[in-house]
Amino acid sequence: xxxxxxxxxxxxxxxxxxxxxxxxxxxxxxxxxxxxxxxxxxxxxxxxxxxxxxxxxxxxxxxxxxxxxxxxxxxxxxxxxxxxxxxxxxxxxxxxxxxxxxxxxxxxxxxxxxxxxxxxxxxxxxxxxxxxxxxxxxxxxxxxxxxxxxxxxxxxxxxxxxxxxxxxxxxxxxxxxxxxxxxxxxxxxxxxxxxxxxxxxxxxxxxxxxxxxxxxxxxxxxxxxxxxxxxxxxxxxxxx
Length: 240
Hints:
The chain is an alpha/beta fold. It has helices at residues 10-13, 19-34, 40-44, 49-68, 112-122, 151-170, 194-208; strands at 74-78, 87-91, 98-107, 131-134, 141-144, 180-186, 217-222, 228-232.
């Protein structure tokens, strides 16, 4: 049985790929990870290389699928270090080639890590119900309060977490510039309706776009792959 650490070698995580190559590799790695029982805990808890894979490369793949689908003149290179971008997208359709610096962040429930911990221990949970905990990390007791969450509450929560994620990047404005774009990934596995997406879009326009973000564009991206909302941050209404 493979060592879980061998599933995501550093060289593969940072390898340049076209959008189609990246999509194929991500799909293949997801299948390979699922076939290794010892990878279950580090993968679910986003430990080590699994953190980069699921929190950066997986949403990066969704982003380039939406924006660059079918393009063979695009090269996507994840960033292996701690510089202020998570990937470089090189557009070879122009001369000299243009490089876009992609920064990815997550709009997550602050209790997300507790949900994952509960799931690892119990092999199941109510996805969106409140998490109740007592004790500390060493002897923590966690339970999921079974509560029905309606669509209005789903939208309210996601809007708040998207704004919080954007505010985190706005507080580091000097790290970014006109060649950076921001991708905020959020949970849309609850299948928001067209009306829900319209509310979310309006919220981002009214409460997120006006933030002092020093990126050229913002993309709000659903982790299911269905939701893709681009916003220009330059004030010119230019390409997103």
